[in-house]
Specification:
Elements (H helix, E strand, L loop, with lengths): L31 E3 L4 E3 L4 E4 L7 E10 L4 E4 L8 E16 L5 E3 L7 E8 L6 E3 L5 E8 L6 E3 L5 E8 L6 E3 L5 E8 L6 E3 L5 E8 L6 E3 L5 E8 L9 E5 L5 E3 L2 E3 L4 E5 L7 E3 L2 E3 L6 E3 L8 E3 L2 E2 L2 E3 L21 E3 L4 E3 L4 E4 L7 E4 L3 E3 L4 E4 L8 E4 L4 E8 L5 E3 L6 E8 L6 E3 L5 E8 L6 E3 L5 E3 L2 E3 L6 E3 L5 E3 L2 E3 L6 E3 L8 E3 L2 E3 L6 E3 L5 E3 L2 E3 L8 E5 L10 E3 L2 E3 L4 E5 L5 E3 L2 E3 L3 E5 L8 E3 L2 E2 L2 E3 L10
């Protein structure tokens, strides 16, 4: 089996004693200690290890360990702990741990460690445990642990570009104080996406989707939560919400909370002195914004956009300010052009005799004020159709229709803050050009969450979750999708399908727990960058990222600076010619990097980090760098 050429050296580790750095060698054995002192690059997997050699690998800082894509493997019948990091200022990078009690454990010592490019899978307890202080974890993934993905009891740690997916407990549990988390993903965990129990922590730019309980649960005090998306969380239990706050003096801003079951944002009766501002919450089973304190107590709600609200058991517009209009419409009506309306009620039980349920002709501005178009599920029309040019559709939703939202006409429409769920076909289908869709959720639809049949569109900060088709499908050219999340779909998270679908750009996407590929490109000339795919696929052909030669043109795809972990088959796979595959981190997959062409057929694999690789039928380390 061939491995990547990023290995610079290798060292033999003997007995339980610390490494003697003057002795070059090939492999590390179970139970060995690396450090303190020196730089080590592994040359092979460690294990499978048993409890007789627990931990499987001990790293004592200061030391640098480059695992070179290799794995620490634990015996599932007699598990040890995985990688234990002690001492001070240890550096561990480019590896994975599978099947251990705790996969990665930063405990004891003075902390200050650095962990980069690490994947943990199938831990018996927590995937990653941090009990020391002031460490930095970057590009670390924890999946399918029996307890929490990340359990952080230390203080002052930084966690960046990390994922916790399909774990048995919380995605992230933050029990310590003063930790900083940024660009993290908590998806499809049995409990909360993230639970913040400590004080003075900061969470910025997080995505929490499809978790069994809350997306975000804040029990501590004086925490700062900023630019968080929470969607598709909860199992319908009375306490499940997109974001729940039980602590005091927390600051929450710029939240996007869409389609959680049952509630959106909840401040409980224990919550005092909190601030929620510049946030949007729509499309939930019950209250979009709820404060259990009489007149909101000492909590402050500022400059938000919500639909239905509930403060101390009844609407209280003075303590949870919301915008309400007086405009009401019947099924089948047409709004516009040049109209400006704000809804004052739902448009309900529309049937096929009034197809579509609502037509908006641009230029027109419709603020739905949190209300919805609801169709008759036994006789479904299309929901909302945008015609003309330059419609602004804001702050609402559509449910139980045929297609939920159709964007037609001459384009340049804007949809912002919208939930389309439970429709018979697509959540939204875009037929025109140069539209912008922001903060959109296309969840639990019979077709795709979002289907793009027009060109030059922009889709940002949007989700496609638990659809019978794809989360997102692109059939045309020059579209830009940024910060989208496709998860839990019956097919792909993102599919670029038609031969005309070229020159599209996907960046900062997250694709998790889909039954087919995370991202599948069936044509050329597209670019996917800075995106993450975790635990997609249910058969032996599904991958995190898959570039296929099914359709013209022959223009190469570019896959750059992406990450893929925990796929049973392949992290990244291609059968095309001349693709550019650069700077990707592919760890903890059945096969990390797979090129099905003999000699890679001109594909350029450069500066990637991965473990196992296969080119064509046989290993070819020369064409997969």
């Amino acid at each position: 089996m061939a491995y990547p050429t990023l290995r610079l050296a290798s060292f033999l580790i003997l007995g339980q004693a610390a490494l003697s750095f003057g002795e070059p060698a090939h492999a590390a054995a179970c139970g060995e200690q690396i450090g303190p002192g020196g730089k080590v690059v592994l040359e092979s997997d460690v294990g499978p290890c048993t409890s007789a050699t627990s931990p499987a690998l001990r790293v004592v800082g200061p030391v640098t360990l480059d695992m070179a894509g290799f794995r620490v493997l634990c015996d599932l019948g007699d598990r040890p702990n995985g990688v234990l990091v002690e001492g001070k200022k240890a550096k561990v990078r480019n590896g994975s741990a599978d099947g251990c009690i705790t996969g990665l454990d930063l405990t004891g010592g003075d902390g200050g460690h650095t962990i980069e490019n690490f994947a943990v899978t199938r831990s018996d307890t927590d995937g990653v445990a941090i009990n020391s202080d002031k460490s930095r974890l970057k590009r670390v993934t924890s999946t399918t642990s029996n307890d929490d993905g990340f359990d952080v009891d230390g203080d002052g740690n930084r966690i960046e570009d990390a994922e916790a997916v399909t774990n048995g407990g919380e995605g992230f549990e933050i029990g310590g104080d003063g930790n900083r988390l940024s660009r993290i993903l908590g998806a499809a965990n049995d409990e909360d996406g993230i639970a913040i129990l400590g004080d003075g922590n900061q969470l910025k730019d997080g995505r929490f989707v499809l978790n069994g309980d809350d997306g975000v649960d804040v029990d501590g005090d004086e925490n700062k939560i900023d630019k968080v998306l929470s969607s598709g969380n909860g199992n319908g239990g009375s306490g499940d919400t997109g974001i729940e706050v039980d602590g005091d003096d927390n600051r929450l801003s710029k939240l996007t909370v869409l389609d959680n079951d049952p509630g959106g944002i909840l401040l409980t009766s224990d919550a005092d002195g909190n601030t929620v501002k510049q946030s949007r919450s729509f499309g939930h089973g019950s209250g979009d914004a709820t404060d259990d304190n009489a007149a909101c107590g000492t909590n402050r709600w500022q400059k938000n956009r919500f639909g239905s609200t509930d403060a101390d058991g009844q609407d209280d517009p003075e303590c949870i300010p919301t915008k309400r209009g007086n405009d009401t419409f019947a099924c089948g009506e047409i709004i516009g052009p040049k109209a400006k309306v704000t809804l004052g009620d739902d448009i309900e039980l529309c049937d096929s005799s009034t197809n579509p349920a609502l037509t908006i002709v641009g230029p027109a501005t419709v603020d739905m004020a949190g209300f919805r178009v609801r169709c008759d599920p036994s006789d479904r029309p299309d929901g909302i159709v945008l015609e003309g040019k330059g419609v602004k559709l804001l702050n609402g939703g559509v449910t139980d229709c045929n297609d939920g939202l159709e964007i037609r006409g001459d384009g340049k429409h804007r949809v912002d803050g919208f939930a389309s769920e439970g429709n018979d076909n697509d959540g939204t289908r875009v037929f025109s050009d140069k539209n912008r869709i922001v903060r959109f959720s296309g969840n639990q639809n019979g077709g795709d969450g979002v289907e793009l049949d027009g060109s030059g569109n922009k889709v940002e900060e949007s989700v496609g979750l638990e659809n019978e088709g794809q989360g997102f499908e692109i059939d045309t050219s020059k579209n830009q999708l940024k910060r989208i999340t496709g998860g839990g779909n019956t097919q792909e998270g993102l599919l670029v399908s038609d031969e005309d679908a070229t020159s599209n750009r996907i960046s900062f996407g997250a694709f998790v727990w889909n039954e087919d590929d995370g991202v599948e490109l069936l044509t050329g000339g597209n670019k996917v960058e800075k995106s993450v795919a975790v635990r997609n696929g249910t058969d032996d052909q599904d991958s995190g990222f898959d570039s296929r030669a099914d359709n013209a043109p022959d223009t190469p795809n570019q896959l750059k600076s992406n990450r893929a972990s925990a796929h049973p088959y392949a992290g990244m796979r291609t059968n095309r010619d001349n693709d550019g595959i650069q700077k990707n981190v592919l760890l903890g997959n059945g096969t990390d990097a797979l090129d099905e062409n003999a000699d890679c057929s001109g594909n350029k694999w450069k500066k990637n980090v991965f473990g196992t690789s296969r080119a064509g039928v046989e290993d070819d380390p020369e064409c997969i760098d």
